[in-house]
Amino acid sequence: MAKKRTLRNPLKAIRAKCLECCGGSPKEVRLCPDFSCALHPFRTGTNPFPRRKRKATPPPAASETANASLKPREVQLSLFQD
What we know:
- There is one protein chain.
- The protein is mostly helical and about 80 residues long.
- Helix content is about 30%, strand content about 0%.
- The chain contains 3 helices and no strands.
């Protein structure tokens, strides 16, 4: 009978592969000297490049938007001044 394939988190799958490569020793995975391996940055089972959360800019206060509409504006009526 075929072995049932279990779905894993990609980072956990990478960690399992690194453990297999290093003979099952977590210490050897931490000390892995193979920097040419594409999985090397992910060998600890964590993402070394976490996404940064965007800083949400708060909407302008109601008093600021009300005052902005009351400010006088200069309007240029034509390109040529008489």
